[in-house]
Structures are given as structure tokens and as C-alpha cells.
Amino acid sequence: MARILVVEDEPAIAELIMLNLRHDGHEVQLATSSADAENALRQALPDLVLLDWMLPGESGLQLAQRWRRDARTRELPIVMLTARSEERDMVQGLDSGADDYLAKPFSPSVLVARIRSVLRRKAPQSLDTAVQIGALTLDPSTMRVVANGTVVKLGPTEFRLLRFLMNHPERVHSRAQLLDRVWGDHVFIEERTVDVHVKRLREALAVADCAGMVETVRGAGYRLARPVTASAGAA
Ligand code: CA
């Protein structure tokens, strides 16, 4: 299940989209103008934005271009939606940073399939597929983490934190980025909260000798490292 922000000013189309995305198991939020969309993104980054081209105020195209320039939203998956169907508009939409493009009128089943395809490519963590790194396996559909054959008991926040880290391994994430991506709304939470939950996560993983996979990168943040030597003989 992905969190999808739908930016669409026409109520009938917005309703049709939201109905179909919810039916496909996604959590949907609606913004009816570009200003609305900016506000929603400031609160929390969704897994994907479905963005209408023609909006009151700034166009969807301008929004997409600006989000691509901002480090926080650069990787945000965007699917553009528009009544324009000429080829040069499509090229412009994709050039502006959209990951895919759909012309109105569209078939709801095609919309749902295209969104799933972009999510698989750019936000696999949103699709409830199990992820394995080294001796560590996390399965979102059963909320289970197994490490070296041992079930690891985690609180909900530690689970979300580990899930995010495992879906973005090797990269260093600052505390602010983790608050943004794992907690969602970081306005009222202090950065040291992250340290508290990382400590709990390591304590839980220590039971299965995996605590070392969550690395502190001094002055930068945290990273989930793939083990350098595979656990030889463990198979
Ligand atoms: Ca519109």
C-alpha cells in the first residue's frame, strides 16, 4: 500500500481517481490546487504524486520542475495527468521530471497499473514486498523481521525505521531525512528522537547478531550497511 498524493482540481475526476486508487489498496490524499499540493508535501512526502497538468495557480508542469530541483523532493515519483494528448506535451511532461504520463480520458485500470509500475521501479518499499539484506529479512505483509533465523521483536516505529533503511541501503540518511520519511510529520519531533529509536533498533537486532548493520556516520546520520563478508557457512 502506497501513500499517494492526488493533485487534481476537477472534483469528478478526483473522485474517480481516488476511488480506484483506494480500491487498489492505496492511501490517498487530495490537493485541489498547486498551493494545496505544496502544503501537503511540506507535511509529509508521499510515495508518489499523481499530478494534473492544468491547475489553478501554478501548473503541474511548473510544480514538477520545481520539485525536481529541490533535494528533498528530487526522487519523488511523479505521474502527470492531463487533457492534452499531443506528443510534444508528453515530451515536455517527461522532460520536466515526470516518471510517467497519462492523457485524459484514461481507463481507471490503466491508471492503476501505470502507478503500480512506477512504484515498483521507484518506491518498492510502498508495495509490501519482503526485502532481504544479508541475514536480515523484513516482510511488511506479516510485519515480521527475521535475522539469522531468529524472529526479531520490534516496536512499530523501529519496524518502520528498519523498513526504510532496508529499502535504501548503503545510503546515509540524516536525522532530518529520517524524521521526514519514517515519522512523516517532523514539525514537532526533535532530532534526538531518531537516536533513541536507532538505539532500540540496534538492541533488538543484537539478539540476532545484526546490530552492526545499522551504522552511525559521524556528523551525517545513519546507514544500513550490507555485510561485507556474507555469513559463510550459514547456509
Ligand atoms: Ca485540471
In short:
This protein is α/β, with parallel strands linked by helices and 235 residues long.
What name is given to the CATH topology of the largest domain? Rossmann fold
Rg to the nearest angstrom? 20 Å
Helix content: 25-40%
General shape: elongated
The CATH homologous superfamily of the largest domain corresponds to: Response regulator
Distance between the termini: 32 Å
CATH architecture of the largest domain: 3-Layer(aba) Sandwich
Q: Give a quick account of the main beta sheet: strands, pairing sense, barrel closure.
A: 5 strands, parallel
- Give the strand content: 15-25%
Number of discrete domains: 2
Name of the top-level CATH class of the largest domain: Alpha Beta
Structural class: alpha/beta
Protein described:
This protein is of the alpha/beta class and 235 residues long. The protein has two domains: 3-126, Response regulator (Rossmann fold), CATH 3.40.50; 131-224, Winged helix-like DNA-binding domain superfamily/Winged helix DNA-binding domain (Arc Repressor Mutant, subunit A), CATH 1.10.10. The chain is 40% helix and 20% strand. It contains eight helices and eleven strands. The chain has helices at 11-23, 34-43, 60-69, 87-95, 108-122, 156-167, 175-183, 192-206; strands at residues 3-7, 27-31, 48-52, 78-82, 100-103, 131-133, 136-139, 144-147, 150-152, 214-217, 221-224. The strands form three sheets. It has a five-stranded parallel β-sheet, with helices on both faces. The chain has a four-stranded antiparallel β-sheet with strand order 6-7-8-9, with helices on one face. β1, α1 and β2 form a beta-alpha-beta unit. α6 crosses α7 (175-183). The protein is elongated, with a radius of gyration of 20 Å. It starts with a strand and ends in an 11-residue tail after the last strand. The model is unreliable at 230-235 (pLDDT under 50). Calcium ion binds at residues 9-10, 52, 54-55.
